[in-house]
Write a structure and sequence with these properties.
homodimer, alpha/beta, Rossmann fold, Arc Repressor Mutant, subunit A, five-stranded parallel beta sheet, four-stranded antiparallel beta sheet, 43% helix, 22% strand, DNA-binding
DNA sequence: AAAATTGTTAAGATTTTGTTAAGATTTACT
DNA sequence: AGTAAATCTTAACAAAATCTTAACAATTTT
């Protein structure tokens, strides 16, 4: 559950935000002055800060300059372009003017909290119970980690890229031995056999089908 | 110089944006329809996309769903909360309603382009019992100080920045010898071995895993 | 049933990695 | 500048992981 620090001195606005976030499954933490906020920030790590600008103690602009590693959304009645630009350039990640709509606030919070490198999602190949992780060359089978060798990984990747298509033996052979022209079909067979064994050990099912005389494909 | 793709069918707005960006030192690229945008996106990598929603060809909402690894700022005349929320939740990073102020647009562009992991100077990298101080040589292992050499520090830092990801041997080699092209893989192995030894002497545990044929990563 | 293809297994060959120590280079200090 | 200490690279060898080969069993096609 993500932890959000609300820095806002107006009690009624504070309560509205707090309730909105809690009903949407965030943990909320409250600061009613700039100085109180800094104390809390020293003690604990938060995932996001919602920040009012006009605060007793230290004002919002000062807080923005001090905080460098937590995303900040400014929530302010100040609607002038200068205020916006100053805050954004000095480190805030977003700026919403009051009065604001709850749904928009929630959406903008999600933008800040979602993982920056959605690369990983893009580059994992999913197929039934299998998930091939690109960034560490492992295969998740029903969320159990299984290590693949480099060639096993290359073979399975090509099969999973087009699960409905037959991959010819020759194409797969190119993967197994990129440069060594002395590549046995036998060797490929062993690799396939090893992959099947690893998957079978976890799922008791067959995932790779062999097409007689042509090559291999994923089972439907 | 950062490359920004402007996707907008209205010629006059397009020109205004283009001039604004160019006078602020961005390279601009132009698409006047959704389909044209997708063609350009296939050919080249951009740092940011400015996106109108109502486009000939494919509309903006579809483009948002297709693009996963480039920040998108929506620029639209549609001011309804529903439009905003939909775009933000389906992948846009910001949403500005027309007419917009040039200075605000520039500020919001900077927000998207600035590096996400601004590890402030004071911050340390923590991972399990390890804490890498940012003084370029100190590693705390269970709060015991251990001295690292400059390259050991650089290697460990890169491993700790993305502890779940494999760092390739080549990437690490670049660190070991920034300018000397005569960098042996052997040398890297020795450095890794030395780091492991220092950690092992304190914790009796292994922290660095080697991925055969690829590189290294932190153990989970 | 014979021939061809595929599947499995285990033993060697090969490649990559880990460790150590000595020599070369850089850095720090007087 | 000259010396000592720290660091880096190289080389040699040991250990581990992976790949290939080969033998044989199982399967499919003709």
């Amino acid at each position: 559950m993500k932890k959000i620090l609300i820095i806002e001195d107006d009690n009624s606005i504070h309560n509205v935000i707090e309730e909105l976030l809690q009903t949407n499954n965030y943990s909320t933490y409250n600061a009613y002055s700039g100085t109180e906020a800094l104390l809390l920030l020293e003690k604990e790590k938060y995932d996001l800060i919602l920040l009012d600008l006009m605060l007793p103690g230290i004002n919002g602009e000062e807080i923005i300059k001090k905080i460098k590693d937590i995303p900040i959304i400014v929530l302010s009645a100040k609607a002038s372009i200068n205020d916006k630009v100053n805050c954004l350039l000095s480190g805030a990640n977003d700026y919403i003017t009051k009065p604001f709509d709850g749904k928009e606030l929630l959406a903008r919070i999600e933008v800040q909290l979602r993982p920056k490198n959605r690369h990983s999602n893009l580059e994992t190949l999913k197929y039934k119970d299998l998930e091939l992780l690109n960034d560490n060359h492992t295969l998740l089978i029903n969320n159990n980690k299984t290590n693949l060798t480099k060639t096993e990984y290359a073979i399975l990747k090509h099969l999973l890229l087009n699960p409905s298509q037959v991959i010819t033996k020759n194409k797969l052979l190119d993967l197994v031995s990129m440069d060594t022209e002395d590549c046995d079909e036998n060797s490929l067979r062993v690799h396939i056999s090893n992959i099947r064994k690893k998957i079978r050990d976890c799922t008791k099912k067959e995932y790779i089908e062999s097409i007689w005389g042509i090559g291999f494909k994923m089972k439907e």
